[in-house]
Write a structure and sequence with these properties.
Length: about 475
């Protein structure tokens, strides 16, 4: 199974740049087959502006993935750098272990004011995996201090990605990512996701929600700490929920005393046209995890936002959530996050996505005449095309075919054509698009042009 983003572009003739040489010798890239680059060029991105980035040769690319679902406000926002510099001059670092500082306080209050309901208590982390890891520890601890210490398990969905630290990895439902690192943190249980593309027509639309209840009953409700779900599941290709899915899940969680964690590391901050993904589907989680676009990734930062109910047992007397991360709430990152949220508000980025998502989606739907295009799905600026061998039978590719199609052809061709997006087969093969939230009609047109050409050639190749 191919699980990575990397692909190899053939070496351009001539001398390798010094950066290429140094990268080959010293940089250990993440989720990357380093061997692919022995005789191929490493894509070195050097600059960004709006929806575009440039490589070391000066070639421009449309960043159709927001640099891994991160740069929601777009590239080249000097004011985010200015906010970081001003903060570094004022107070470069202080910790949130027993101390507070103005930016962490202001950001916590601002997130609480933006988050729905009583999601009022913010615990900062350095990124998404740590946010998920922290959420799992918090739900275990919450139940323990309330006298239900047997509640330790976390129910997640198949193919969902929740991060790579051993706890977050135990929530991640991708066998190929897990198997090399077993044994993982005990207690990760998995249920079917909501990808209904191949469901039998007569299947109850809330089948996947009910599967969560079945699993809770199978495990024993008094062993289940929480259910963790993304509003729209990323891995597997932007999988939206069925109507009423989250309402049913909420009922199930309440019936069995499990907490509901909404993992919004991707879906928060405008990706789905709302501040938080849960708002789009009208459900109330007990904890939300965020990262990536909290700062539009101009500085690393994540957080969990807990409801008053979940935080309450830790707020009195000698009680303490005995967990911490040196960089949690880093003042420079917090200053960048505040400035990033200012941009979101000033430019009404959530509203822009809500206004433009039908046009974006319509553009992708228009590609359905290409034989390899099976399903088009997603929400907001978070959409995927599932690739199939046959549109009528929905027949998918074997692992080998998928490897050849995605790595041998699509990833490289899309990149060469100047479009950065994700060709992925952690479930069935998909191409994912998730542009910066400032993307508009012009960028949709460019994406369409590249996809039409490359997917048509891919269709011919697999025929
Ligand atoms: N949760 C979700 C839903 C994610 O998409 C990711 C990363 O893509 C993570 C958690 C892990 O975040 P990070 O890579 O910042 O550790």
């Amino acid at each position: 199974m191919a699980t990575r983003l990397e692909f190899a572009t053939p070496e351009t003739p001539g001398e390798r740049s010094e950066l290429q040489e140094l990268a080959r010798r010293h940089l250990w890239m993440h989720f990357t087959r380093m061997g692919s680059y022995v005789d191929h060029e490493i894509p070195v991105i050097v600059r960004g502006e709006g929806c575009y980035v440039w490589d070391e040769h000066g070639k421009r690319y449309l960043d159709g993935l927001s640099a891994l679902f991160c740069v929601n406000a777009g590239h080249g926002r000097a004011e985010l750098g200015d906010a970081a510099a001003a903060q570094a001059r004022e107070l470069g670092f202080f910790t949130n272990w027993s101390y507070a500082h103005p930016r962490a306080i202001e950001l916590a209050a601002r997130l609480a004011s933006l988050a729905p309901g009583d999601l009022n208590r913010v615990f900062f982390t350095s990124g998404g995996s740590e946010a998920v890891e922290s959420a799992w520890k918090l739900v275990r601890n919450y139940h323990r201090v309330r006298g239900e210490g047997t509640r330790t398990k976390l129910i997640a969905r198949e193919i969902a990605y929740h991060g790579t630290t051993l706890g977050a990895l135990a929530a991640t439902g991708i066998t190929g990512l897990r198997s090399q690192f077993e044994p993982l943190t005990p207690g990760g249980c998995h249920v079917p996701n909501t990808n209904s593309y191949r469901w039998p027509e007569d299947r109850d639309p809330l089948w996947a929600a009910d599967a969560i209840e079945e699993r809770i009953l199978f495990e024993g409700p008094d062993t289940v700490a929480a259910v963790i779900l993304e509003p729209v599941q990323n891995a597997g290709g932007c999988i939206p929920p069925q109507d009423g899915y989250f309402q049913r899940v909420r009922e199930i969680c309440d019936r069995h005393g499990a907490l509901l964690i909404s993992d919004e590391v991707i879906c928060a901050f405008g990706r789905l046209g709302h501040w938080f993904g849960c708002e789009r589907y009208g459900y109330r989680p007990d904890i939300v995890t965020v990262a990536k676009a909290l700062t539009s990734a101009y500085a690393p930062m994540g957080a969990l936002i807990a409801s008053d109910r979940v935080a309450e047992p830790f707020m009195e007397g000698k009680a303490m959530f005995a967990h911490g991360l040196t960089f949690g709430g880093h003042p420079v990152s917090a200053a960048v996050a505040l400035a990033n949220l200012d941009i979101f508000e000033r430019e009404e980025l959530c509203g822009h996505v809500a206004a433009k998502e039908d046009e974006f989606r319509g553009m992708l739907e228009s590609l359905r005449d290409i034989p390899i295009v099976g399903d088009v799905r997603g929400a907001g600026y978070f959409q995927a095309i599932e690739l199939v061998k046959d549109q009528d039978t929905k027949d998918t590719f074997t692992d080998e075919e998928s490897e050849d199609l995605l790595r041998g052809f699509l990833s490289g061709e899309l990149y060469r054509a100047g479009l950065i997006c994700r060709a992925d087969d952690r479930g069935d093969p998909v191409v994912q698009l998730s542009p910066p939230l400032v993307a508009d009609t012009e960028q949709f047109g460019e994406i369409e042009g590249v996809l039409r050409d490359v997917l048509t050639r891919a269709s011919e190749r697999v025929r």
